[in-house]
Amino acid sequence: MKIVIFDMDGTLIDSKKDITISINYIREINHNLPPLTEEYVVEVINMDNRDLPKLFYNTDSYEKDDKELFEMHYSSQCIQNPYLYEGILEMLEALIKSGVKISVATNAPTQFAQKMLSHLGVADMFDAIIGADRVSNSKPDPEMLHLILDHYKFDKKEDRAFMVGDSYKDIKSAKNAEIDAIFVTWGFSIETLHNRVIDSPSELLNNV
C-alpha cells in the first residue's frame, strides 16, 4: 500500500488572500492596526521560529477576543477566494486511480479544512482530513501523521508513506514520523533545500 499525506494551505490550495483578509480584520477591529500584505503573512506563517500573536496583533499571546473574532470571520471568509493550484485535481484523480491512498494533515482547524476542500469539490477524495484541533501537537510534531497512518493500519515493512508539503514543518513532521518527505515549490515557501523537491503536481506521480 502507498499512502500520500498532503499539507493543505500552500500545497493543495492557495488560501493566502482569505487568511490575510481575516487577520487584517482582527488587526483593524480589535487593535486599530494597519493592514499586512499577503506576502508578509505567508512569510511569517512559514518562519521556523515565529511568534504569531506578536507579529500579527502585537500581543504577547493569542487573546481570547482575537481568537474568537478570527474564527467567526474566517468561517465565512475562508471560502471566498481559495483555489486549487493548477494540476492538483488531475494529480489527485491519477493517484486514486492508481490505488494510492490520500489524506490531508493541516495545521488549520479541521472544520475550516473540511469546509474549504468541500467548497472546492475535493473533500470526498480524501480518506481522512486531520486538522490541528484533532491532536495535542501540530506539525512538525508527528502526531497528526501517526493518526493518519494508524487509520490505514500502516506497516512500515509492507507499506510506504509520503508527506507532501510546502514548508519545513511538513518536511520535519515526515522525518519525525519516519516516512518520506516531498517538498513542493509552488506553495507559500520558496525554500528548496530538501532531498526531494518537485516543481509541479504532475511530478508527484513519478515520485511515489
Describe the protein.
The structure is a single chain. The protein has 208 residues and is α/β, with parallel strands linked by helices. Helices cover 42% and strands 14% of the residues. The protein is built from nine helices and eight strands. The chain has helices spanning 16-31, 38-45, 52-57, 64-77, 88-97, 110-119, 143-151, 168-177, 201-204; strands at 2-6, 13-14, 83-84, 101-105, 129-130, 160-165, 180-184, 197-198. The strands form two sheets. Strands 5-4-1-6-7-8 form a six-stranded parallel sheet, with helices on both faces. α6 links the parallel β4 (101-105) and β5. α1 (16-31) crosses α4 (64-77).
Summed up:
The protein is of the alpha/beta class and 208 residues long. The chain has helices at residues 16-31, 38-45, 52-57, 64-77, 88-97, 110-119, 143-151, 168-177, 201-204, and strands at 2-6, 13-14, 83-84, 101-105, 129-130, 160-165, 180-184, 197-198.
SSE succession: EEHHHHEHEHEHEHEEH
Write down the oligomeric state: single chain
In terms of DSSP E residues, the strand content is 5-15%
Summarize the biggest pleated sheet: 6 strands, parallel
- Number of helices, where a helix is a run of at least 4 consecutive DSSP H or I residues: 9
Distance between the termini: 11 Å
Number of strands: 8
